[in-house]
Design goal:
The structure is a single chain. With about 120 residues, the chain is of the alpha+beta class. It has one domain (about 5-120): Orthogonal Bundle (Arc Repressor Mutant, subunit A), CATH 1.10.10. It is about 40% helix and about 20% strand. The protein is built from 5 helices and 5 strands. Strand 2 (about 65-70) and strand 3 (about 80-85) form a beta hairpin. It comes from Halohasta litorea. It holds the Pfam family HTH_20. InterPro entries: ArsR-like_HTH, WH-like_DNA-bd_sf, WH_DNA-bd_sf.
Length: about 120
């Protein structure tokens, strides 16, 4: 629903990052997602309605600041957790007075990269 693991390596647009960071609910979600959390956990922790949470997760995903992780449950179905997907965001201005954004991401293990690929494949089925 929220993120495209293949695009999480791409640089997000400056406007998408600014829009997400300017939103108080998005900032609350980012504070809570240092460790993976489910939507229900985020609803409780951030004290925001479910519909608002999903809109904010979409905004954070477009900015490539949150990543979605799906886990297959032994009894069937899957659990989706959301995790902050950056170590640092830098906004800078170049010599031509153009703003740009750089997002530094945590290193991913091969298992995490494979998990991203499987998660993306599951979304396409």
């Amino acid at each position: 629903m929220v993120s495209d693991p293949a695009s999480s390596e791409d640089s997000p647009s400056l406007q998408n990052v600014l829009d997400a960071l300017d939103d108080a609910n998005c900032r609350a979600i980012l504070r809570e997602t240092a460790e993976p959390m489910t939507a229900n956990e985020l609803i409780d922790a951030c004290d925001i309605p479910k519909s608002t949470l999903y809109r904010k997760l979409e905004l954070l995903s477009r900015a490539s600041l949150v990543r979605e992780q799906d886990t297959i449950n032994p009894g069937g179905g899957r659990t989706t957790r959301y995790e902050r997907d950056f170590d640092d965001v830098t906004i800078s201005m170049d010599d031509e007075d153009d703003l740009s954004v750089a997002v530094k991401r945590p290193p991913r293990s091969p298992d995490e990269r494979l998990e991203d690929i499987w998660s993306k494949m599951g979304d396409e089925l």
